[in-house]
Amino acid sequence: MSVDGTPTPGSLDGRPDPAGGTQSGHANGDINGAGQQNGIVMAPPTYLTHRLRLNPNSDHKPDNYEDLELDFSPLIFSSLERYLPPNLLPQTRDVKVNYMREILLRYYPESERIRLQKHREYRQKIISNYQRLHRELYTINATNFFVPSFLKAINENTEQGFRNIMSEPSPGIFTFEMLQPRFCEMLLAEVENFEKWVHETKFRIMRPNTMNKYGAVLDDFGMETMLDKLLEDFIRPISKVFFPEVGGATLDAHHGFVLEYGIDRDVDLGFHVDDSEVTLNVCLGKQFSGGELFFRGVRCEKHVNTETQSEEIFDYSHVPGRAVLHRGRHRHGARATTSGNRINLLLWCRSSVFRELRKYQKDFSSWCTECQREKKERQRQSVAATKLELLRREGQAAT
């Protein structure tokens, strides 16, 4: 039920992780990072299975992969490395890359890799031909982008600092002032410039997802590096505090885009979940009425279509410059924009680690409210059955 239909890894199973599976070679204290043992160059170890640990090695400092030409973002490899089996951590960077790449390729069969390569070529064609209007948008300038209260909280990097600037009007939904008016104006102008260029060149652009006919993918227009920085330095620290159970501390990939709503644009957005672990949604403007977000509870794949409970119902009215941060699996939609035009910046934040570990678990009660209810009901039934059994035994003893 993801908005763009992108395939996501299957569900999790909760079993203890065997710390990486079986290794046919040996990785002990005598093997150094260069793959040598007692001065003799060793062949790279091979592994019969490729699995991550459930718990990361928090003391390990990952390698930097930015200088390598890789199929996936260097941030993903750095993020995954702390979850490698202990006997892999002292291995060479190439060995670790190959191991992690095997895991990542599970999600990308050959047909998908071909599609991604074509998308890279398509993106490069846009970037080579599109003339940027505001070049300063393409790199992070924190003081020009963000309001002072948001920057102060990021610099403090504490839960209390974040809570000082946030409201939590409904469980798991956080709102806060984020973007400077000038930044919103520049990005709106850049979006208009996108649309003008697309119209004049008759270039067919890919829309952000299958549910929206208007809007643009910011990564396709050259903003990928800026959005990577936004994720890494500003959204991940907050998500680490408020969304740890869905990989908030390991967010390492994103899908960044703008959506346009109005009478001559998309009017509303149906009930759905996002293909993300955490979603950032910021209204840029312009003048509009309507367009409220409606939230209806957090659900795992198994329970995505289950009934909404009264305490899960929450509606939110957009304010330009103000952000909403929520789990991607928090079911939501957008009501009709009844007048004017509304443009929103969306950042779907994803965690490769969380998506891999999801395969090892079945119980989502740490974040799915329906799983929580089912778990409590099982516990209630178990207690009731125990009480009945005790009463039965007491009755038998009395007779």
From TrEMBL:
Enzyme nomenclature, EC number: 1.14.11.4
GO MF assignments: iron ion binding; L-ascorbic acid binding; procollagen-lysine 5-dioxygenase activity
Region of interest (Disordered), ranges: 1-40
Domain Fe2OG dioxygenase, chain residue ranges per copy: 252-351
Keyword Metal-binding found: yes
Enzyme superclass (EC): oxidoreductase
Cofactor annotation: L-ascorbate
Coiled coil: none
PROSITE patterns xrefs: FE2OG_OXY (PS51471)
InterPro entries: Oxoglu/Fe-dep_dioxygenase_dom (IPR005123), Pro_4_hyd_alph (IPR006620)
Keyword terms: Dioxygenase, Iron, Metal-binding, Oxidoreductase, Vitamin C
Name of the protein described by the UniProt record: Lysyl hydroxylase
